Amino acid sequence: SIFAMSQCTSDSDGFLTVGCMTRGFSPADSLTFKWLDHANKDLSDFVQYPAFGRDGDYTKISHMR
Question: Which Gene3D superfamilies match (predicted)?
Fold first, then answer.
């Protein structure tokens, strides 16, 4: 399952934070996030947290500003 998250208003500096969460995958290191801009170019300024969970049901979260 993949879930997109975003805040409804911008920070005081005008930036938005958007995120993506996926769950229900295994093994823990089998998934990585890839962010693209409107021209399908790779973006590298994002955070990818380590997977958490157990017994073949892992969750992973990534976010960027």
Answer: Immunoglobulins
